[in-house]
């Protein structure tokens, strides 16, 4: 689900050698255009992550 949302925003999530995954532009953007907005209102600790349902693990901060 998060990948579909990212594609609609003009970005894509790919494997990246340094950190495992990265967010990359999938189209050209104009100067000043908002590429993606991150909702940082929900934070999850590593111990809380282990009990999250799979659907929640697709949120951008788990990509």
Shape annotation: extended
What is the number of domains?
1
Helix/strand/pairing class, anyone? alpha+beta
Number of separate strands: 2
Percentage of residues in helical conformation:
10-25%
Strand fraction band? Answer: 15-25%
**Structural Rg:** 13 Å
Number of helices: 2
Specify the biggest β-sheet: 2 strands, antiparallel
Ends apart, CA distance between termini: 11 Å
Task: Please summarize what this structure is.
By secondary structure, this protein is α+β, with helices and mostly antiparallel strands. The chain has one domain.
Question: Any overview of this molecule?
Answer:
The protein has one domain. It is built from 2 helices and 2 strands, in the order H-E-E-H. It has helices at residues 2-8, 46-49, and strands spanning 11-16, 20-25. Strand 1 (11-16) and strand 2 (20-25) form a beta hairpin. It starts with a helix and ends in a 14-residue tail after the last helix. The mean pLDDT is 76.
List keywords for this structure.
63 residues; alpha+beta; 2 helices; 2 strands; 19% strand; extended
Task: Summarize the topology.
Elements: H1 2-8, E1 11-16, E2 20-25, H2 46-49
């Amino acid at each position: 689900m998060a990948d579909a949302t990212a594609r609609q925003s003009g970005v894509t999530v790919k494997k990246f050698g340094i950190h495992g995954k990265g967010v990359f532009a999938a189209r050209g953007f104009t100067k000043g255009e908002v590429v993606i907005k991150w909702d940082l209102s929900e934070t999850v600790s590593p111990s809380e992550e282990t009990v999250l349902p799979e659907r929640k693990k697709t949120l951008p901060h788990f990509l």
